[in-house]
Design brief:
Blueprint lengths: L7 E12 L5 E24 L4 E12 L14 E4 L2 E10 L6 E11 L1
Antiparallel strand pairs: 1-2, 1-4, 2-3, 3-6, 4-5, 5-6
Amino acid sequence: MRPPRLSRRLTLEEAQRVPDGSGGFSLTWAAKGDLWAEVRAGSGRERAGESVTLSTVGYRITVRGAPYGAPSRPRPEQRFREGNRIYRIVSVAEADAFGLYLVCEAAEEVLT
């Protein structure tokens, strides 16, 4: 395995529920920290609705390894942000037997 080229800085974000003042909650995203990553695009697809089209592209995002429970270890319910782009994390697995790197399967969805 060749070492990944971690050349893009992504912000790891986690959803948080905050009271909306009316007895309910709203969802906000809080930054957990920045990670350097290699981002590789996969195949995409498009679904047409009545008034909008949803384009989805899969990505393989590689970051440095982190042990289970560490705040820097991505989880499927989190997302990466790069400027205005958002990558929803679908799965996370070790890329090698030593756990030096993690591979995150992610999806970017864009309404057109």
